[in-house]
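Posting this for the archive.
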Amino acid sequence: MTHENVVKANEIIGKDVVKALQRRGFGAEYVATGEEALKRVLEIIPADATVGIPGTVTIRDIGALDALKARGNVIYQHWGNMTPQETREARFKENEADVFLTSANALTRDGEIINIDGTGNRVAGMAWGNGLVLFVVGINKLAFDLSDGLKRAKAATIPNAIRQHVETACVKAGHCVNCLNDESMCRAILILNQAVKGRKYHVIVVGESFGY
């Protein structure tokens, strides 16, 4: 398949997922590239808004963290050289921000948003918090159905654990083994079946691959 055909196929699939998300009460749109996604993030988030950015590779990959900082937005994040107490406090501030800017581990073709978490702060911020939840989701995160999405979410734990230098059982085995031990990073699973009552959501589906 040529590059042009892949781009067209991604657009067709992505726009179909957008319709599914909208049926479930989520604001949603499709963009072709990471550059377009960054442009939309900067348009959607007010220049004076506080922004919480949890553990998401996608948001950093599209350059949103640096762009928002350069514009003057106050950013709350727990990545970096922090003490355990500073990390804990940053996680609370992320969830209290005007905008919670994140990605998803999986997004089904029927519009269900799936995330898996070890600490719980990220899934908590998606379900309950102060302001807008803004998702940026690469085309690589799409799954056929809920079962496929859960498998995809668990598989994403392996590169995430490697990034954090955590020797989980799945890193050692090369696949999920449904471990129940201290190193497990799969402790809380959130499936957003519909937009939560009283909460504003917007999902940007990107026709390129980002994150795990």
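Residues 3-206 form a domain with the Rossmann fold fold (CATH 3.40.50.10420). The mean pLDDT is 89.
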